[in-house]
Amino acid sequence: MSTIETARSTVASPAPPKSALRQDRYAPYFFISPFYILFTVFFLFPTIFALVLGFLKWNSLATPEFFGLKNYQHLFNDPVFWQSVSNTIFYALASLGIVVPLALLEALALNSKMLKFRTLWRVVYFAPIVTSTVAIALVFRTLYNRDFGAINQLIQALGGLPVDWLGNVQTARIAVMGVVIWRWTGLLAVYFLAGLQSIPEELHEAAAIDGANTIQRFFGVTLPLLKPVILFVCVIVLIGSMQIFDDPQLMTAGGQIGGPANATMSIVEYLYLQGITNLLFGFASAVGTFLFVVIFVLSLLQFRVFRGFGTD
Amino acid sequence: MKSIKTVALLLLSLSLLGLNGLTAAYAQKEVKISAWTADQLYVDYFKTRTDEFQKAHSDVKITWDFVVKPDAPAAVLQAIAAGETIPDMVGMERKQFSNYMKSDILEKNFVDLTDLIKDPSQYSSAKLAIYTYKGKLYALESQLAASVFYYQPKIYKDNGLEVPKTWEEMVADGDKLGPKGIAQDFVTDDGDIFHMMLHQRGGLVFDKDGKFVLGDATNRPLAVEVATLLQKGVKNGTFTPVLGGDVWNGATIPTLYRSGKLLGTVMPDWWSSCCLQPWLKAPPKALGTEQAPAEGAPTVWAVGVPPVWKAGGHKTLTWGGTGWAVSSQSPNAALAKEFLAFAYLGEESQAQKYVAINNFPWMLAAYKDPRVIGLADPFFGGQKIGEIYAQVADDVPTWYPSPFLAGFYKGAGDNLPGLFNGSITPDQFVDAVVKVTQDGIDFGN
Lengths: 312, 445
Hints:
Largest interface: A-B, 42 and 45 residues
Oligomer: heterodimer
CATH class of the largest domain in chain B: Alpha Beta
Strand content of chain B: 5-15%
CATH topology of the largest domain in chain B: D-Maltodextrin-Binding Protein, domain 2
Shape of chain A: flat
Number of domains of chain B: 2
Helix content of chain B: 40-55%
Helix content of chain A: over 70%
Distance between the termini of chain A: 49 Å
Radius of gyration of chain A: 27 Å
Number of helices of chain A: 13
Largest sheet of chain B: 5 strands, mixed
């Protein structure tokens, strides 16, 4: 009875003032506004501005002129651009084909119960991520050096001929890929490790009771349950590879941007060359738009693949 | 009583004098001049001249705000593009100068220095031409940048060879030295290597009016001749290619020098102070390479005139250089301009600069200054290297800047690896460079 009375008294209470209602209505917008303000200032506006710039002739100093599709015509007729596309595809495929499987193997090893000093190994594998890229580049440039690098010393000790890793058009991007593998495998292994640790132990035990050996358990239990993580890793690797810049840039710093005969030039390095070095902002924006479209399409494809695997 | 009065008056006078001095000191305005450069050597030189300059400007107290970073000229350009304030003085590496020629950047942002050169005939015309745009001089060159041959004479002697006088002789010597793994010079995939050799041979990339002329009937055969020699030289081991930025970073060149695999280098005056001497005097011990000769020990290095082309051309070749420009946005523009003239122009300053940082003068009279030709360098066994520079200083090739020079360098640089490894012929190389440069000019964005 007393409960009903209380309820009645609540209903009968006077209506809140109009200002309070207005506050209730606008408060959510106020709270979400920081994100949208930042999103507009730092993403939406620059994106639209870059799209427009792609149709202009502009170097930020002179008055912009409408240039039609000339930036795009020049872009698609420039062999250096296609070289950068080819190199970027190489980095992406090599990352997917080498870095991802290596990271998975690394994670399996780090997750193994037989492994001693597990925390130490995890720290060691993660160390490249927290190491300065410049320091990494210096060390790798020394290792790759044609005349006194440790890799060539080893090759020569085994009776081989020294290789000009970073100076040779055929080997330069392979050398850059070596750095990418060393640098990023650890981080991806952490993602896989998190995925592996979320797989219930009972499933492995049940499979073992059913007579499945280690390999069968890996393909029958581990891999299917890791699919969402694998797909997530593939997406970030693919997008990261499309935007690769600092690894090739630092490995060839001091020489030609893009390495010897553009052998290591990525799309973003090409954009940097045109925009920052040559001050061709209109043209560089066209390159950026191209890259945006490519990544957008690839992301859509990835989402479709996600759905195909039944993962939202 | 009289003496007390006299002492009191004296004390009063002294106090007033002191007060006057104090007031003068307070009246001295502090002026901070900001200067950006890619090379610490210029900072060192500016500092050595500041006190002297200060004496003539008692009304101001000059202090410096130096920024030294490898990409300083590009950073200034980006600052201009972003509408930010630029430093009072900018050390423009001359390759970057061509980028400053775009969109009236020079006219809008830098002071015209033409009036500082009262008599142009006193200076190397080549060094004035590099920083002249639309008839106005926008930067003062730091050094003549005339190349000489830095080499290790013992290696030639041990192999029964004379120091080559022409490029053709050098490549012929390569037939003997190359198979032993001894290169006489290095080449890079920097378009500069081709650019400087072409100009020494007498060719041009851009003419006085800024027209692209590399592909014309006069310059194309010369370009092919240079490319042919480069390809032949790499093939027989005369030139060792050092690609991918290792010329400036790392220990590749010093290690090659010390191991005797690279006996020398044709390079300008700045090579000695920026690279050769610092590298060899402070060897990278961690790499286990042998130490440079102790001071006073018989040197293994010498300087000679550079090889010339058998068929003609100039006595020397030129690479690099840094021109100092003054920002017209700066409230200190007049003072900065005055300092630049004080530190860079006239025989006295040109000689002092050479003694301080080995930047060979580009004022003709200074070539004969005893401090220039008489300076013995212990690194080169007491050789008076100024005499060698002076022998070639009157015939430095002139090359003209263009806003499209960067396109030429990119085109040449991209195709040099192919020329070096023989995958393209010298003719194809020149055609490719002409095409890339012309495409850039036609696009003109």
